[in-house]
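Protocol check, entry for the methods section draft. Step 1: assemble the input record (protein sequence plus ligand SMILES). Step 2: submit for complex structure prediction. Step 3: store the structure tokens unaltered in the notebook. Ligand used here: magnesium ion. Step 1 record:
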Amino acid sequence: MQKIAIMDMVLANTIAAGEVVERPASVIKELVENAIDAQATSITIEVNNMGLDSIIVTDNGLGMDQSDLYLSYQRHATSKIFSVKDLTQIKTMGFRGEALPSIASVSKLEIHSRTDKTEGYFVKIVDSKLVDEGKTTLNRGTKVKVFELFYNTPARFKYMKSEYAEKHAIIDIFEKLALSYPSISFRLIMDQKEIRKTLGNDSVEALIETIYGKNTTDGMKVLKTSIGKVGVDAYLVNPKFVRSKRSDVVVFINHRFVRNYAISQSIIEGYQTFLMTNKYPIALIYLTIDPALIDVNVHPQKMEVKLANEVYISFALTPLVKKTLESGTMPIRESIADVKKEYFKPEVINLFDLVKSEDDTVDLIPDKLEEAPIKDEAEKLPDFDYIGTLFGTYLLFQNTDGLYLMDQHAAAERIRYEYYVDKVGNLSPSVYELLLPRPLLITNNDFDYLKTYEMLLSSLGFSFLDDKLTSHPSWLRDDEIDIAIESICSQLATDGQIDLKKLRNQLAKDISCKGAIKANHQLSIKEINQLVYDLKQCLNPYTCPHGRPVLIKVSNYDIERMFKRIV
Ligand SMILES: Nc1ncnc2c1ncn2[C@@H]1O[C@H](COP(=O)(O)OP(=O)(O)O)[C@@H](O)[C@H]1O
Ligand SMILES: [Mg+2]
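Step 3, stored output:
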């Protein structure tokens, strides 16, 4: 081993930079948070070449004088906290004094600033060293210019390769920041083009419209309440806007965007009966909490926040959200209760002797996409006679082998799924031209995806005029269009491309679930016969597309054993 040496300042800053500013979007986050802390009411972010050429953040905040400018890029220099005690009362976005020195170590940095009392001054820092300084003219506020980000690290190369992902990471962080502060006007300019602009007029409704899209506040419900000492402002977007991912359930604690699973989950559960299985809402929740009860100092990027009474808050939230959504007249989606995993207790599983998978247990992972459903003849549905319906949901059948319970919703889903798998993704579809272009229930971000992939989508039969749909493949029903388009966008967002096989499965799954017979709906004998007939034609009649069982058999042997006729 070599002798121990204390790291020099540049090396220490560069290592810290890896944590605080791991990507261009995180540089933007740090600079904007500084502007917010400086009480700016207007913040403009200009990004060139995904931030690799330049990131310029201009604010009209309090500014810095010359001596503060010299300190601002020094490590552990902050104007926001001064003692350990202050750490328990964080009211600002920043406090660690790490951002500017970290950025200075991986870029060429210029900070121009002016206060009410002083003239403008600028400093230029390269390799963490002051290389130029002087007077400059600007309005009160600060302009931070970051050039050639990561020029001295291998990370630069990495970001050059994933232009697409970086662009969206930047838009995403911008949106979260803009949503955090409804009173600040934010502008995002990418490669000289204005991408987003918020008004800063304090209206969350207006903000949601600018960020998510113009119709997204139609039928939105607002919940303003408090749970104990925690202030709650929840903006619950109408569940007709359906998302495939949970990332549009956004949590803010004291104006800080955070990832908090418990809180976002409690909101999703409040929406549960309004959404299909595996679908998520758009909802924003602003919590106001005494800073002493939270710990923001658990993560360098301050994205995770520890909350003292998190369990209590999330427990209380779900029924509040549900009640708010139920109030008034909101177009309600068909409600399909989620099947909880705990229903599949092991002692129940041994009755599923018809549902065979490799290890003889049922595949309980609802999200798993099904592979081509090929079942051998031996696993075709047996013949049986209908004897009644249980709870308006389970059809009961019998034959000489035992009793069968069929989940009518799952059965209908399976039938429709196989129908759609056949239709969706057909590469030369017959196309239905709309007389009037149709507005879509999707977000601004999704429009971006539709534009980017216009050619590909038109080969699938979808075409658009501005933000409206002008044609779609004819197999798609009118009430399925929004779901289909959201699924497509969600896949484009994740993969940057459309995998036809995956899309076909996903769409078939979503659409089949939506159109299928509901639980608690009494079927006529004719409908039951049709259902059994259709199910018999299915390649895989034993599970619904989400992996839940369609049919459960209780064998004669099991029944006799339950009654202790045999042991
Ligand atoms: N846009 C800005 N306006 C005014 N002061 C700023 C601005 N950006 C940075 N500063 C000053 O520079 C200091 C260091 O910033 P930073 O490294 O981000 O650390 P922190 O935000 O954790 O204090 C801040 O505490 C603040 O005093
Ligand atoms: Mg900061």
